[in-house]
């Protein structure tokens, strides 16, 4: 009798107010437990390097887990399969499709075993695999049985009548000539019902064409078929998923006069695959499609619209002042609001449209096959009217409005990114006008204000004449109070306009591309200053420099870093580059660049962690050194259970992955006390010091103990 497993992480305060999330996570954990108990499971990266194996994998391969991790599956290669076999497998999963097949592997002790294998690729927003999950089941006994079948007809009958697999023989017309007793035990029909019937009458009507093609192919090719999946009807009217091998039986003349079918019930496996897929591509709170699934659909619909010369629309939708709901009624009420909003939006769109949740109170709608913009207006008006209806929570009625920005294909953009960008512009135009409205994108939204034009022109001069300076904010070991490093922060003191805030000029630098020369200047000055302090006799510290997404993806990034380190004489280990989670929109490319930075000897950290694209499943595969917890979680950590739970979860996963953690925005002793209690190693914020000029920072160093 199996004992139901327990999951301590579900007792975390994070789930106290979100029973639905807790149930979903428990369901996922149960599925993982069931798979671990019944199947051989492994996870590999895009290059086939093994990242995870379960106990079943170790047991059957006779390798220790440590011997498998970091290897690829060539360690198990038995030499049985051809290069074309594996080439076809990689071509299938590399294109994002699920691969199924049977593989003979070699165990550590030299013995061989067969596994029935399903490899499921997980795709990023660009549709490229970022990892593969393989589910295997030991079929060595079945393969042995198949071999015995070929050797002796009598032995074949003995085995088939005692096999849990469904084994049958059909003639060229599909009539049953023999069915094994397992047909009756699994499907519930009498054996006589099968023996007097034709196979297609038991097959789901949607799968019949596939089965006919497979039978005709085996009759012509005289070779065994690759695994075939179709559904078979049970006595109760439901259907079982069967994985089937079809083998030809030759007569004395070498002609195919009948076929052997070996069917295996894979219904539970199909349910597991469907559950895993659903969880990977849907929002856990609302059950709507998530960003990844939406982007995949949008790319396909844009391609179809170009081919058919049709119209579509993208609608960005925000719930107005949703933060008030969370703050005044609590996050549980906020979650109920989001669930109800998701239902109402879904009821307002057509069956061929899609609504997805991007996160927080942000939704996005895709309308396809449009006849005119009036159709978009009608649907958006329905959504607005529906959301304005009061929502009853805990016996009280609450009202909420929404803001929507709309971009049309092809008039407002001809690719997905352009449509999203312009729908977002239209949304912010509504917000700037007071919210609770709908706006179509128009070209005026891209016109820049006089202030913006002035700042852009002055920014170019500021870079040319080096009007910038760098302040340094110390990072401390929270346990000892010793300085461990400092973050370089760029400041602009304009000779006429005075000090200009970074949040004003950095976005302009990003959009115009001026962030590239500005970022290089900051990196060079930061490295020069750090080397200067070392030469003055101060113990070496790590200087952290921010890299925006645009800088991160510049073609000569690595050459630029190497050149600056060489010019300044700073050793690579005393430089840390801070990147934001926005770079992980292209996870595969980001991981490759991060690895090349690591190869230079430079450290990397993820800034503002927890606010963007990343998830723990991505983080564990990235070559990074440090997680920098966003200040928004630290701000109320001493009084908000959710923030505290999130920080503790980040600390736990960081410890598991051997990553350093620094808390950003530590301002009061109460925050520091909680962080110390939770075991956070490092901190940064006004509690310790504001950002200091280079001279003030040097004076600061003189008065503090320093550790490397």
From TrEMBL:
InterPro entries: Biofilm_reg_signaling (IPR052155), Diguanyl_cyclase/Pdiesterase (IPR012226), EAL_dom (IPR001633), EAL_sf (IPR035919), GGDEF_dom (IPR000160), Nucleotide_cyclase (IPR029787), PAC (IPR001610), PAS (IPR000014). Signal peptide: none annotated. Residues 27-84, 152-222 form the PAS domain. Pfam families: EAL, GGDEF, PAS, PAS_9. Residues 310-443 form the GGDEF domain. Keywords: Coiled coil. One of its GO terms (biological process) is regulation of DNA-templated transcription. Residues 135-162 form a coiled coil. Residues 99-151, 226-278 form the PAC domain. PANTHER family: BIOFILM ARCHITECTURE MAINTENANCE PROTEIN MBAA (PTHR44757:SF2), DIGUANYLATE CYCLASE DGCP (PTHR44757). This is PAS/PAC sensor-containing diguanylate cyclase/phosphodiesterase.
């Amino acid at each position: 009798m199996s004992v139901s497993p327990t999951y301590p992480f579900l007792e975390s305060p994070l789930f106290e107010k979100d029973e639905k999330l807790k149930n979903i996570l428990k369901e996922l954990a149960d599925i993982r437990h069931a798979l671990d108990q019944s199947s051989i499971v492994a996870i590999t990266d895009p290059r086939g390097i093994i990242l995870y194996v379960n106990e079943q994998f170790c047991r059957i391969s006779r390798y220790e887990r440590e011997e498998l991790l970091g290897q690829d599956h060539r360690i198990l290669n038995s030499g049985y399969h051809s290069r074309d076999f594996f080439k076809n497998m990689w071509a299938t999963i590399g294109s994002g499709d699920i691969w199924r097949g049977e593989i003979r592997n070699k165990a550590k002790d030299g013995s061989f075993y067969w596994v029935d294998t399903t490899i499921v690729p997980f795709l990023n927003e660009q549709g490229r695999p970022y990892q593969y999950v393989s589910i295997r089941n030991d079929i060595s006994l079945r393969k042995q049985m198949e071999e015995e079948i070929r050797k002796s007809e009598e032995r074949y009958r003995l085995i088939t009548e005692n096999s849990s697999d469904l084994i049958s023989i059909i003639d060229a017309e599909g009539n049953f000539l023999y069915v094994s007793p397992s047909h009756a035990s699994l499907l519930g029909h009498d054996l006589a019902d099968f023996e007097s019937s034709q196979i297609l009458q038991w097959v789901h009507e949607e799968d019949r064409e596939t089965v006919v093609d497979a039978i005709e192919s085996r009759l012509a090719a005289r070779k065994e078929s690759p695994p075939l999946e179709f559904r078979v009807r049970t006595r109760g009217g439901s259907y079982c998923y069967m994985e089937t091998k079809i083998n030809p039986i030759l007569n004395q003349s070498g002609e195919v006069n009948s076929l052997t079918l070996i069917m295996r019930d894979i219904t539970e496996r199909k349910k597991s695959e469907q559950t895993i897929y659903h969880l990977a591509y849907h929002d856990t709170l609302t059950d709507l499609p998530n960003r990844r699934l939406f982007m995949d659909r949008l790319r396909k619909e844009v391609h179809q619209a170009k081919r058919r010369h049709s119209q579509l629309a993208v609608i960005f939708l925000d719930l107005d002042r949703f933060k008030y709901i969370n703050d005044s009624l609590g996050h549980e009420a906020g979650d109920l609001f989001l669930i109800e909003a998701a239902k109402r939006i879904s009821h307002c769109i057509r069956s061929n449209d899609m609504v997805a949740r991007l996160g927080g109170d942000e939704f996005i709608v895709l309308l396809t096959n449009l006849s005119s913009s009036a159709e978009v207006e009608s649907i958006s008006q329905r959504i607005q009217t529906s959301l304005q209806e009061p929502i009853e929570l805990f016996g009280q009625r609450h009202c909420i409005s929404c803001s929507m920005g709309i971009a049309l294909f092809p008039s407002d953009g001809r690719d997905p990114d352009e449509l999203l960008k312009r729908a977002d512009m239209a949304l912010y135009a509504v917000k700037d006008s007071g919210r609770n409205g709908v706006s179509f994108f128009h070209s005026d939204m891209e016109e820049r204000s006089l202030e913006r034009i002035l700042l852009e022109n002055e920014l170019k001069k500021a870079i040319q004449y080096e009007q910038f300076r760098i302040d340094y904010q110390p990072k401390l070991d929270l346990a000892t109070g010793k300085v461990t490093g400092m973050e370089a922060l760029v400041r602009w003191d304009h000779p006429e306009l005075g000090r200009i805030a970074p949040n004003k000029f950095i976005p302009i630098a990003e959009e115009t591309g001026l962030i590239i020369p500005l970022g290089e200047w900051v990196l060079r000055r930061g490295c020069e200053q750090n080397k200067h302090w070392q030469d003055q006799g101060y113990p070496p510290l790590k200087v952290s420099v921010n890299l925006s997404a645009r800088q991160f993806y510049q073609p000569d990034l690595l050459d630029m870093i190497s050149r600056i380190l060489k010019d300044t004489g700073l050793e690579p280990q005393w430089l840390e580059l801070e990147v934001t989670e926005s770079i992980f929109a292209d996870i595969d490319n980001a991981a490759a660049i991060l690895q090349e930075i690591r190869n230079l000897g430079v450290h990397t950290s993820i800034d503002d962690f927890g606010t963007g694209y990343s998830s723990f499943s991505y983080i564990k595969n990235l070559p990074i050194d440090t997680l920098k917890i966003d200040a928004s979680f630290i701000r109320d950590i001493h009084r908000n259970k959710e923030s505290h739970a999130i920080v503790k979860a980040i600390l736990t996963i960081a410890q598991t992955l051997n990553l350093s953690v620094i808390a950003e925005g530590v301002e009061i002793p109460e925050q520091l006390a909680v962080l110390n209690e939770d075991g956070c190693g490092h901190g940064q914020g006004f509690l310790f010091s504001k950002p200091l000029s280079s001279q003030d920072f040097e004076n600061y160093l003189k008065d503090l103990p320093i550790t490397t």
